[in-house]
Design goal:
With about 475 residues, this protein is an alpha/beta fold. It has 19 helices and 19 strands. The protein has a 15-stranded mixed sheet, sandwiched between helices. A two-stranded parallel sheet has the order 7-14. Strands 11-17 form a two-stranded parallel ribbon. Strand 3, helix 8 and strand 4 form a beta-alpha-beta unit.
Length: about 475
């Protein structure tokens, strides 16, 4: 038997093993069909991708992450007693109260009253605010990001952390091993030499127990002195700070397209829950148990905030359920902004059902995406959504990266989760539910301002698509669960 024949038999055997494994695992119908298609379409390569990305270790990783979180919560109860201080929400609408209960049920984190919430919409201002908080730290700086770039913004961020570590603060940086792969080891070593601690989340090392290529930490989180917190959509890099563009990076030489994002600055009791999320993630990634020390005092007249972490360690994904609740419970309008729009079937039904009920449903997505295949997969659904009455807008001036929901001018969600398969199934995400009419009104004003700079997608334009375009979008749709 020749080498070519042996190789062909080996590839065939690998294909068969991967197909049997995919069919017998509980991945869900959509994901299973996508992997079957991928394995058959790319013999040899498809199975290798399957065993790397849909690793059998995923279930073990989920369990380890859940146990780390439970250990931190138990330590908090022992040191602080009960921290369940539900907010006063008697004035809230029935939907708002139900969403608060939903979030608390799925995350174990109660809604908290008395928070000062600042909506940071200007990229440069957001990074100035974070830098000011870090430089003013007296006791601790805990930072957790999906992406920390090796550029001017990333280096300045690491320099600020190092300076606070030298001053004796408890400085910890948790970064995703894939998203932050560009960080030079020398920069991390400099931070450690200054007294700080660094840890990567799920490094790509099959020999480590906490290894899994498919599960990523997409959270953006900063907690300073356990008194000031930041979360939202902005990673650490020139793009997110207002100095980069997708076109400039692609080398096409066209006009600059700045990134358009949303972030939150928080003070008050909800910061304790941000600190808890960081402590759980740090405990999982490092093996060193970390416990927040105290709950900040409420601020008079502050907003009700519920911190909303989600991830594959949860029995039911908190972000997926909150999005569904927003669409199914809205009485007048539900406006969503997402840079990566690849909805699963339940989300498509929820969007259509809300529009059929007469709710003003609007979805704002980018006209130019830094992930073209994800954009193509999302556009596959345009016809179905438009026929139901959902309105879709594509943002023109820059690269849209904000992830927000605002419902009935009553409450809002700002976070890291996209309206896509990864955010609802595979990524560890983080956001904050804000129940404050003034805040919701501000976010609605931002949304309507963005629509002025967007083009509305029409059903006529979708129906004019040619065969090749429809085939391209359909193919991207099949790959959606793998994106």
């Amino acid at each position: 038997m020749s080498f070519t024949e042996i190789l062909a038999l080996a590839v065939l055997a690998l294909d068969v093993v991967a197909l049997v494994h995919a069919v017998t695992r509980h991945l869900g119908v959509t994901s299973t069909l996508a992997w079957i298609f991928f394995i058959l379409f790319l013999p040899g390569i498809g199975p290798l991708a399957y065993f790397l990305l849909a690793s059998p270790r995923i279930r073990t990783t989920r369990r380890r992450k859940r146990l780390a979180g439970e250990a931190v919560r138990a330590a908090i109860r022992r040191s602080l007693g009960s921290t369940a201080l539900p907010a006063e929400v008697d004035h809230a609408s029935p939907l708002a109260r139900s969403v608060l209960f939903l979030g608390m049920r799925l995350t174990g984190l109660p809604p908290r009253a008395g928070n000062r919430v600042e909506l940071l919409l200007d990229n440069a201002r957001a990074f100035e605010s974070k830098a000011e908080a870090i430089r003013g730290a007296k006791r601790s700086v805990w930072a957790e990001y999906y992406i920390v770039e090796d550029d001017a913004t990333g280096r300045a961020f690491l320099a600020d952390l190092s300076e606070r570590a030298k001053a004796g603060c408890d400085v910890r940086l948790l970064y995703d091993a894939v998203g932050s792969s560009a960080i030079p080891e020398g920069s991390l070593e400099a931070l450690r030499a200054a007294g700080g601690k660094t840890e990567s989340f799920l490094p790509l090392n099959p020999l480590r127990k906490r290894w899994s290529a498919h599960l990523r930490n997409h959270r953006k989180l900063l907690v300073v002195d356990e008194q000031i917190g930041f979360t939202g959509g902005m990673n650490v890099g020139d793009d997110y700070a207002g100095g980069g563009s997708i076109v400039a990076r692609s080398g096409r030489g066209r006009r600059n397209r700045p990134w358009h994002d949303a972030h939150l600055r928080l003070e008050g009791p909800a910061v304790f829950d941000l600190a808890t999320v960081f402590a759980e993630d740090w405990t999982f990634a490092s093996g060193e148990r970390l416990v927040p020390s105290s709950i900040p005092l409420p601020i008079a007249g502050g907003s009700v905030v519920a911190v909303l972490p989600s991830g594959p360690d949860q029995i039911a994904n908190a972000n997926a359920h909150v999005y569904f609740a927003a669409l199914s419970g809205a009485l007048e309008r539900c406006w969503l902004t997402t840079p990566y729009f690849v909805p699963d079937e339940p989300t498509v039904r929820a969007l259509c059902n809300a529009a059929y009920r007469g709710i003003d449903v609007r979805v704002l997505v980018p006209a130019v995406s830094d992930v073209p295949v994800a954009q193509a997969a999302g556009r596959f659904f345009y016809g179905t959504l438009l026929r139901s009455g959902v309105r879709i807008f594509e943002y023109l001036p820059g690269v849209l990266h904000a992830k927000t929901v605002v419902v009935d001018g009553s409450w809002a969600l700002v976070g890291s989760a996209n309206l896509d398969f990864r955010s609802f199934s595979l990524n560890f995400e983080l956001g904050a539910l804000v129940f404050d009419r003034a805040f919701a009104t501000l976010l609605e004003e931002r949304f309507t301002g963005d629509l002025i700079r967007s083009r509305e997608v029409t059903l006529a334009s979708v129906e004019r698509r040619g065969f090749l375009e429809r085939a391209r979008l359909g193919l991207a749709r099949l790959l959606a669960p793998l994106l």
